[in-house]
Design a protein that fits this description.
Number of strands: 7
CATH architecture: 3-Layer(aba) Sandwich
Radius of gyration: 18 Å
Strand content: 5-15%
Number of domains: 1
Low-confidence stretches: 1-16
Structural class: alpha/beta
Order of helices and strands: HHHEEHEHEHEHEEHH
Helix content: 40-55%
Shape: globular
CATH topology: Glycerol-3-phosphate (1)-acyltransferase
Strand order of the largest sheet: 1-7-6-2-5-3-4
CATH class: Alpha Beta
Mean pLDDT: 87
Largest sheet: 7 strands, mixed
């Protein structure tokens, strides 16, 4: 198997290969996703109005993710979760292969998590209110306000929430893996938070970037050993970015290769 083949997680579906089952699954997932999002948004907004730090918010987001993944026919296997301290807040640095990465992380990570989310999502009726109520951190990618982002991230970490950062900045295929941006690493250093490298393996097979058809898939979320704050703070940002990116992409390659070997 060539390097290109190992790195190619989600070859695009041809028109001829799209069957009625694929279309039905896609429609079902879309309907279930909309209904689940509305229901969970109402719950989170209501709960947060009474108790902003309630654990019901985290349980609701996990159920939301589980319901959508079930509708899509996605199973999630987790590797390395035993290394995590449930009382520790991490800066989670992950690759980004699909819109389903978010749901998979809600299910896979045994710690309460919050995301750096595109600011435009906060303008969506009800959904945006839910994001604010759940204390997600808004990011304006066209003109990043680093002070505001850092303040929001610091607030989330100080309240015990791990912060998920998709370091590539956008969804990509594994073959097109981009350089990791520095923002999440600077946040970790400034707030003395351990970095948690996480590899998303197989999510691109559910719905590739710019894809429209939802496919059944077996996903593996590979959690590497955390990089402790003292190690993160003693290394320059560029070195920390390089080290973490190597860990994430090496784990993605290795588990992708092993999964395909089992299928051959």
């Amino acid at each position: 198997m060539t390097e290109r083949q190992r790195m190619e997680l989600a070859p695009p579906l041809s028109i001829e290969s799209i069957g009625a089952t694929d279309v039905l699954r896609t429609l079902t997932t879309a309907i279930v996703g909309v209904v689940a999002t509305i229901v969970v948004s109402v719950i989170i907004v209501g709960v947060a109005a009474l108790e902003p730090t309630s654990t019901v918010i985290d349980r609701a987001t996990r159920v939301w993710a589980q319901v959508i993944l079930f509708a899509a026919g996605v199973s999630v296997e987790v590797r390395g979760a035993e290394a995590l301290d449930p009382d520790q807040a991490y800066v989670v640095i992950a690759n980004h292969r699909s819109a389903f990465d978010i749901m998979c992380l809600f299910v896979a990570l045994p710690v309460p998590i919050r995301f750096l989310a595109k600011r435009e999502l906060f303008s969506i009726p009800l959904f945006g209110t839910m994001l604010r109520s759940a204390r997600m951190v808004p990011v304006d990618r066209s003109a990043a306000d680093h002070a505001t982002i850092n303040k929001g991230a610091g607030t989330a970490l100080s309240r015990g929430y791990s912060l998920v950062v998709f370091a590539e900045g956008t969804r990509t295929t594994a073959e097109e893996a981009k350089a990791f941006k520095k923002g999440g690493f600077i946040i970790a250093q400034q707030h003395s938070a351990p970095i948690l490298p996480v590899a998303m393996v197989g999510t691109g097979s559910i719905l590739a970037p710019h894809g429209q058809i939802v496919r059944k898939a077996d996903v593996t979320v590979v959690i590497a050993d955390p990089i402790p704050p003292e190690s993160a703070s003693s290394e320059n940002v560029d070195g920390l970015v390089s080290t973490t990116r190597t860990i994430v992409l090496d784990n993605e390659r290795r588990w992708t290769s092993e999964s395909r070997s089992l299928m051959d």
